[in-house]
Each structure stands twice: as structure tokens, then as C-alpha cells.
Design brief:
Largest interface: A-B, 16 and 14 residues
Helix content of chain B: 10-25%
Strand order of the largest sheet of chain B: 1-2-6-5-4-3
Radius of gyration of chain A: 44 Å
Oligomer: heterodimer
CATH class of the largest domain in chain A: Alpha Beta
CATH superfamily of the largest domain in chain A: ACT domain
Distance between the termini of chain B: 16 Å
Radius of gyration of chain B: 14 Å
CATH architecture of chain B: Sandwich
CATH topology of the largest domain in chain A: Alpha-Beta Plaits
Number of strands of chain B: 6
Largest sheet of chain A: 5 strands, antiparallel
Order of helices and strands of chain B: HHEEEEEE
Strand content of chain A: 35-45%
Number of strands of chain A: 24
Number of helices of chain A: 9
Number of helices of chain B: 2
Shape of chain A: flat
Strand content of chain B: over 45%
Helix content of chain A: 10-25%
Shape of chain B: elongated
Largest sheet of chain B: 6 strands, antiparallel
Number of domains of chain A: 5
Number of domains of chain B: 1
Chain lengths: 411, 92
């Protein structure tokens, strides 16, 4: 089909060949690479089709061998030239219409948000606009995956975003995260938030699964939200206890579990410390840049500083001949300062740092039992390392929703 | 192609199991139903009429008899024929 179309673009001729043994001409033509098709015998003449490009060569062969070649029919777009010239306005209009349609369809004209319940629609739209998707945005100016990733990154309440573009309509489909509701009465366990030793427990609801003095690891269940009904079977042997009442049920575990936990902080101080400080001396240079060339207006020599940092700023315009504009350089002299600490001083500094790091770790309301610091570096080291440790009593119980997957009915 | 060279080629292609239509320029004919015939490796048309077509091959020729036969396409080495085909015969 496509080949037929391109034949029409070039033009096709249907020709009639007269004379004896016309097969000879056909053989010669096909041997020379002229494509011939639709060979048909009409009376004593042969009719076939040939491309315009091969017609001249065919005519030449036929005349050389004394055959008569007659063109019966011509087909091709070039024959429509007259029509095209007469209806030029119409054709140009049609082309402009198609182009306009194509151009306008490469924009996003309507933008919708679906799937949002708590997150404000406008918030989503504003963030989508930040990544290039807004009403009237050309489709080539944004990438779908970038918008999706940007929305997910900027809106932490969303767990899934899909940007669907259909023609000029774009739909942002979002799925919000379902966060476990802390205040509701959903069944949950109380689990340990840190490693520690349990030293006080208060159970309001649920089944305690640790006792005072137990060592617990992070994530261990302290008070279970799954409760097994207690029945003394021997006592109530005669009574018919309904099976339903024997089944375990789930509650929201409540209570407080205080435990001894440890926090650590680390600090170090080298005995010899090298620092780079600014001396306060500075040197300013101005220049005009024209492409590759730089004209110094002030300070055409480099400053004779041993160590320096350079700050650059300026305004340049990008041209085909390089960057043009004004620039300024400020050189700031630097110097190295070496501080030597004695071991006691270094230890003091390291200890202070360790305690500071420890303090940053500690929760505010925690009751501190004792704090101790410990030197962990060996005496010969160039750096004094100190570890500070605090023992604290705090409530380590945190809520963890019970997964619905556990099918209690099978117990 | 001399008889001897042809014989050597034939033995070689048999030994290496190479398709003969590629190496020996032997004709390859495909007939679809009763009304379409494709022929590769031909050497020109000897005679064409709606009821009989004779085609030159590397050795001998092929005679096709039928009714209302049309050469649908003709290339230097391939051709396709449509029409009602009655008979395909090899001749020397």
C-alpha cells in the first residue's frame, strides 16, 4: 500500500506495446532494472504499467528495437497541479487548520485532581505547577515522571501519584497515605522504643508480656493488645461456656512502662590542631571581560599572599563571542594556625564535646540517674576520644497498631 | 555453466546442506492456492499469453498453463503471476 502511494507521488504510466514478440522488450527492460507490473494481454498487444522514472528508458528500448509504445493512461499527483493552483487558498487553509489543531493540542488545557480527600486540591495544583504542569502548559515543557516524583517528594501525605495525560486533558490521580490513627480505639500493642531494663510498669489495658527487671530490646512487645479470656475450666466444668467467649480479642493496650535506658555521646580533640584563619587583609580587583580577553581596571597584578581564597562576582552577558561584562575579584589572605593542647586540655575539650553530644541526644523530660565519661583512646594516640554515657529512666512504651492480617478466628 | 562445474557445485551443496536456490541459482516456485504463483531466479519471459506463459530458467524452461493469467509484477530475478493455473511443467 505504501509503495503504491509513493508510485503515485512519482507518477505511473500505463503503456501499450505493439509488434511481434513483445516479451523481448519486457525482458530487456526488467534486465535493466525497470520495474514493470500488471502485464496483461489485450488482443495482440501487451499492456503494462511502469513508473514515470523508468518510462524514458523503456521508450528508448522499444524504439531501438522497432516497437511502438503507446501511453494509455497516466496517474500521479503531478497531474493535479492545475487543481491545486486553482484551489490554493482552500488547501493552504486546510493545512493551517491541521497545523493549528496539532499545535493547540500540544498544550494541557484542563487539569484535574482526583483521589484527594484531606490534601487540598489547590496545594497539589500549586506543586504540580512548580514542576511545570499547569493549565495552559505546553506538553514539551514538563516530564510526567518528574511531576510525579516532585509531588511525592513535596507532599509527604501522598503515597502514590499518577499523572495521566489524554489529549488536552491532564488528570493528577493521587492516593493519600493512611496514617494509623493514634487517638482512635484501634487495637494496638505497646512496644519498646529503645533497649533497656524494665523498672516500673503500669498496665491500664491489655496483657503485660514483660515484668519488672526484664531486659527488652527495641521493638519487643511490652503490653500486648491481644487478650486471652481467663477461665478456670475446672471450676466451671459443668457450665456451658459459649465458645465465642473463649476466643481471644484485641484491645488498645494502655499503660506506662518505665525502663532504664542508656544514651551515649562522643567527643574528640586532637593534641595538635591546624586551622585556617583569615588574617583580615584583602585585595580587590576589577576587570572588564570581552570574550576571551580580560582588561584589568584595578589591581592588574595578583596579590602576593601566601595563602588566599578568592571570591568572584560579576555580571556577564552570553554572546556568540564569549561572555561580556564586568567582574570583581576579592582576595582574602589566609593563614594557618596551629594550636597545641596539653593532654589535660584536650581531655577537657573532648569531654565537653561528648557531654554536649549526649545532651543533644537526651529527651527533655527524662530523669537522669547518672552520667559518666570514659576515655576510649589509648594513651599514645594523637587524638583524645571520650565517650559520655547517661543512664536514664523513661517511658519506653509506644503504640504499634496490630496488623489486621492476624486472623483471630482461627485460634 | 559447464556440466562438470554444475555437478561439483551440486555435490558441495548436498554435502554442506546449503539451500540450492541460493548457490546454484535454481528456480524457487511458490504457489498459493490455485491463483497465485511466485517464481524466483528466472531468466526472462519466452512467451506470454493469457492461457500460456513460458519462462526461461537457468536450464530449460517452465511452462505454465491456465486461464486469464496476468504477470502481476516483474523484477530482474523475481516475478509473480495471478490467474487460474492449471498446470506447471518443466521442459528442456
Amino acid at each position: 500500500m505504501a509503495i503504491r502511494f509513493f508510485d503515485l507521488v512519482g507518477g505511473i504510466k500505463k503503456v501499450r506495446l505493439q509488434g511481434k514478440r513483445q516479451e523481448r522488450v519486457i525482458n530487456m527492460a526488467s534486465a535493466r532494472g525497470i520495474y514493470i507490473w500488471g502485464i496483461r494481454k489485450v488482443g495482440d498487444r501487451i499492456e503494462f504499467r511502469v513508473r514515470d522514472s523508468g518510462f524514458e528508458a523503456l521508450k528508448h528500448i522499444a524504439e531501438e528495437n522497432g516497437y511502438e509504445l503507446e501511453v494509455v493512461e497516466e496517474k500521479g499527483f503531478y497531474l493535479w497541479r492545475g487543481i491545486i493552483r486553482r484551489r490554493l487558498g482552500f488547501i493552504v487553509g486546510a493545512l493551517v487548520f491541521i497545523l493549528a489543531l496539532y499545535f493547540l493540542s500540544s498544550f494541557v488545557w484542563t487539569l484535574e485532581v482526583s483521589g484527594n480527600q484531606k490534601v487540598d486540591k489547590n496545594k497539589i495544583l500549586i506543586i504540580a505547577a512548580k514542576y511545570g504542569l499547569y493549565e495552559g502548559a505546553p506538553k514539551w515543557s514538563f516530564k510526567r515522571s518528574e511531576v510525579e516524583e516532585g509531588l511525592l517528594k513535596d507532599l509527604s501525605q501522598l503515597s502514590y501519584v499518577k499523572v495521566d495525560i489524554r489529549g488536552v486533558k491532564a488528570n493528577i490521580e493521587v492516593v493519600e497515605k493512611i496514617l494509623p490513627d493514634e487517638n482512635a480505639n484501634t487495637p494496638c500493642h505497646l512496644v519498646a522504643s529503645r533497649d533497656g531494663i524494665v523498672c516500673d510498669m503500669l498496665v491500664l489495658q491489655g496483657e503485660p508480656s514483660v515484668k519488672i527487671g526484664d531486659v527488652v530490646a527495641k521493638g519487643d512487645i511490652l503490653i500486648s493488645g491481644i487478650v486471652f479470656p481467663h477461665y478456670d475450666l475446672q471450676e466451671e466444668e459443668d457450665e456451658d461456656i459459649p465458645l465465642e467467649e473463649l476466643k481471644p480479642y484485641t484491645v488498645r493496650a494502655r499503660g506506662e512502662v518505665k525502663a532504664r535506658v542508656w544514651y551515649e555521646g562522643y567527643g574528640e580533640c586532637p593534641l595538635k590542631k591546624e586551622e585556617v584563619l583569615l588574617t583580615g587583609k584583602s585585595y580587590q580587583r576589577f576587570y572588564f571581560k570581552a570574550g576571551e580577553k580580560i582588561f584589568w581596571l584595578k589591581g592588574d597584578k595578583k596579590p602576593d599572599f601566601v595563602m588566599a581564597t578568592r571570591k568572584k562576582r560579576g555580571k556577564f552577558i552570553k554572546t556568540p563571542w564569549g561572555d561580556w561584562g564586568w567582574g570583581e575579584e576579592v582576595w582574602l589572605e589566609e593563614m594557618k594556625k596551629t594550636t597545641v593542647y596539653s593532654e589535660e586540655e584536650a581531655l577537657k575539650i573532648a569531654r565537653q564535646k561528648a557531654l554536649k553530644a549526649l545532651k543533644a541526644e537526651l529527651p527533655r523530660q527524662a530523669k537522669r540517674l547518672e552520667t559518666k565519661t570514659e576515655v576510649i583512646s589509648t594513651p599514645g594516640d594523637a587524638i583524645i576520644r571520650v565517650k559520655a554515657q547517661a543512664e536514664v529512666i523513661e517511658n519506653i512504651a509506644v503504640c504499634q497498631p496490630i496488623e489486621k492480617k492476624i486472623n483471630l478466628a482461627n485460634w | 555453466m559447464s556440466k562438470r562445474k554444475e555437478l561439483v557445485n551440486k555435490i558441495m551443496t548436498d554435502f554442506f546442506a546449503i539451500p540450492k536456490d541460493l548457490v546454484l541459482d535454481l528456480p524457487k516456485i511458490t504457489i498459493v492456492g490455485r491463483d497465485e504463483l511466485y517464481l524466483e531466479n528466472h531468466r526472462g519471459i519466452i512467451e506470454y499469453s493469457p492461457h500460456r506463459i513460458r519462462i526461461n530458467l537457468i536450464r530449460g524452461f517452465l511452462e505454465i498453463e491456465g486461464r486469464d493469467m496476468v504477470i502481476k509484477a516483474l523484477l530482474a530475478e523475481e516475478m509473480s503471476i495471478t490467474g487460474e493455473i492449471y498446470l506447471v511443467r518443466f521442459m528442456d
